[in-house]
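Form 7-S
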Amino acid sequence: MEKHIKAPISREEASTLRSGDYVYITGTIYTARDAAHARMKEALAQGKELPFELERNLIYYMGPSPAREGRVIGSAGPTTASRMDKYTPQLLDLGLGGMIGKGKRSREVIDAIVRNQSVYFAAVGGAGALLSRSIKSAEVVAYDDLGTEAVRKLWVEDFPAIVVIDSLGHNLYEEIGRS
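Output:
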């Protein structure tokens, strides 16, 4: 099924999504990869604020290439999500609404998705130039010294993704493997 959704994503909206749904996301999402996740974990351990509000927001595991002239952002393809698995359950438990990446997730992440009525989306790997067309603005909001791994606030319009793990724990990768 094809759906248009808003970001941040409410629990109610997340609960309507099913693995295999094609979605087009419009709204604010944030980028963060390995180094930014490590800094966020450190900030939490020290009782400090995170660089953005987690409540029902989406994190896109992406580090863009430099923008070409006249473009907001360069190629913006997804990073392998499992690299963030050691950080993700805590972020979901603190209110994160979902993630966008590519590849499988651990059992601990899937359990946290279900526990928090969240969702994991996949963006098509290798299609970064195409995905960047849905990004209408990009602003570094934290960890500028990390370069491409800095946390960015993006405004996206009709950003294409596929629901891989829904709020009930249905996992598209496992379903495909069984067929």
